[in-house]
């Protein structure tokens, strides 16, 4: 099995020499096995291994025991372990989500945080063949299109640039259990796995066993079908990407589709281009269905001025020669601009209001311990020597740019937002920590390269923000 996983990782170029792999380990069989296999492969493939455990705050004492189990396992294996605690029930209530979805969102927020500001990091998750088959069937019954039927990608890039890898996608649950038994390694049992209030559990505990009873190779055949569909999707993605610059026109606060050029394309490409433009305007994929995409396509045959309302406050209307997509909230936000001088900070601390965020900060001497860096979305550490004498908390302005890497590559903030599919309304309301036109931190999102601390840092500026709802998702 270890050799099988190694070949799959090499096939998909999941790691590179000298990189760091951070494995998400819940304590369950799948993730514990992933941890053991990756530790064995770390020497063979020349990468370092760390672990992150997210305690969701759902199962009380059982959940805390899982966290202790993971810590003990990592201690025994000599692996660095990052423990993150979140409150899924509270987040679910605040955002009107089910706990299953809320847990997934917070878990991936934690994963993105652990990778932020670090070079050559891969986040490994333990999804296996049965998980992939469940995902495909789940998407099928929800009415998903082609992309949803392709299952999980072996390698994908997150919204903040973090890279996720799935080394176990060709491994079965049976292989995982056999591997753990052979190694004599115990693991935690999650009591919620038997709770069929979660739709994923009903798929896992009822549907997959029934399909396997019909054909023992059902899961394998489903995964083979997904691979073929993935090849078709990848081809369509290439064609769509090639056509996009001629069809999709980005304006200041809107996206336009050129009807003349759109109408001559094959329907499969045409509908994917409309979907891409709609999702970019909305800044989200969820709740945007084929019905909405077809409604936008229907405007091609309507007269100028006809419009439709779509999810996330997006409005599509027919104009001469094209279809325009715009967000209803664009230009509704009052600009914010507050300057802070480090020399004037009383006793090295400050507290101020900017927009709908309350900013608190302090300056202190850094002892060189990089492990103390907080792994929180709304608390960041900056190097005072990099900040120099002052910084500004404000909304965006023309000319703003974002430093991407050590080579000095930078991107206009507007282009960065477009690439991350941040909707126009959020682009105008999000708060930034800046130095002139250079964006150091998109509050609730990513820090610019070089804005954080290093082992050479002498003084740290810590900034904590409360009251913000925006996240770069």
List the keywords.
6-stranded mixed beta sheet, 473 residues, alpha+beta, 40% helix, globular, single chain
What is shown here, in short?
The chain has helices at 2-11, 29-45, 61-77, 88-95, 99-115, 129-142, 146-149, 173-183, 199-214, 218-247, 259-263, 267-282, 290-298, 384-387, 413-419, 424-429, and strands spanning 20-24, 48-55, 80-85, 121-124, 155-157, 163-165, 248-250, 254-258, 307-310, 314-319, 322-327, 337-341, 349-354, 357-365, 379-383, 390-394, 401-403, 410-412, 432-435, 438-442, 459-466.
How does this structure look, described?
Helix 6 crosses helix 9 (199-214). It contains 16 helices and 21 strands. It has helices spanning 2-11, 29-45, 61-77, 88-95, 99-115, 129-142, 146-149, 173-183, 199-214, 218-247, 259-263, 267-282, 290-298, 384-387, 413-419, 424-429, and strands spanning 20-24, 48-55, 80-85, 121-124, 155-157, 163-165, 248-250, 254-258, 307-310, 314-319, 322-327, 337-341, 349-354, 357-365, 379-383, 390-394, 401-403, 410-412, 432-435, 438-442, 459-466. The two termini are 35 Å apart. With 473 residues, the chain is α+β, with helices and mostly antiparallel strands. Helix content is 40%, strand content 22%.
């Amino acid at each position: 099995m270890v050799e099988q996983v190694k070949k799959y990782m090499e096939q998909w170029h999941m790691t590179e020499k000298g990189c760091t792999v951070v494995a998400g380990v819940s304590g369950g069989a799948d993730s514990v096995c992933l941890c053991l296999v990756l530790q064995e492969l770390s020497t063979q493939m020349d990468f370092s291994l760390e672990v992150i455990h997210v305690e969701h705050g759902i199962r009380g004492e059982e959940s805390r025991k899982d966290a202790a189990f993971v810590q003990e396992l990592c201690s025994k294996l000599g692996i660095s372990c990052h423990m993150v605690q979140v409150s899924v029930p509270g987040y679910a209530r605040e955002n009107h989500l089910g706990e299953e979805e809320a847990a997934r969102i917070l878990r991936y927020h934690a994963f993105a945080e652990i990778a932020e500001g670090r070079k050559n990091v891969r986040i490994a998750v333990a999804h296996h063949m049965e998980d992939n088959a469940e995902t495909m069937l789940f998407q099928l019954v929800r009415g998903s299109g082609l992309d949803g039927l392709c299952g999980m990608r072996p390698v994908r890039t997150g919204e903040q640039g973090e890279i996720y890898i799935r080394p176990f996608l060709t491994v079965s649950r049976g292989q995982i259990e056999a591997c753990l038994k052979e190694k004599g390694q115990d693991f935690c049992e999650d009591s919620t796995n038997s709770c069929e209030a979660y739709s994923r559990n009903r798929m896992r505990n009822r549907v997959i066993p029934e399909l396997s009873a019909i054909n023992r190779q059902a899961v394998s055949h489903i995964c083979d079908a997904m691979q073929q569909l993935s090849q078709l999707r990848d081809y369509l993605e290439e064609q769509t990407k090639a056509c996009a610059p001629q069809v999709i026109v980005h304006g200041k606060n809107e996206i336009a589709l050129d009807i003349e050029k759109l109408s001559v394309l094959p329907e499969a490409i045409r509908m994917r281009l409309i979907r891409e433009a709609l999702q970019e305007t909305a800044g989200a994929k969820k709740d945007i269905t084929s019905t909405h995409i077809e409604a936008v396509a229907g405007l091609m045959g309507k007269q100028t001025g006809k419009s439709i309302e779509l999810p996330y406050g997006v409005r599509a209307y027919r104009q001469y020669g094209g279809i325009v997509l715009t967000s209803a909230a664009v230009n509704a936000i009052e600009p914010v601009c507050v300057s802070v001088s480090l020399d004037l900070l009383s006793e090295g601390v400050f507290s101020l209001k900017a927009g709908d965020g309350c900013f608190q900060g302090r300056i202190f001497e850094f002892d060189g311990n990089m492990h103390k860096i907080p792994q929180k979305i709304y608390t960041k550490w900056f190097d005072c020597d990099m900040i120099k004498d002052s910084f500004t908390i404000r909304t965006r302005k023309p000319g703003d740019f974002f430093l991407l890497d050590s080579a000095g590559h930078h991107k206009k903030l507007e282009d960065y937002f477009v690439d991350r599919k941040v909707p126009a309304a959020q682009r105008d309301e999000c708060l930034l920590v800046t130095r002139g036109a250079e964006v150091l931190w998109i509050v609730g999102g990513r820090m610019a390269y070089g804005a954080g601390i290093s082992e050479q840092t002498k003084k740290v500026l810590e900034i904590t923000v409360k009251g913000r709802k925006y996240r770069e998702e």
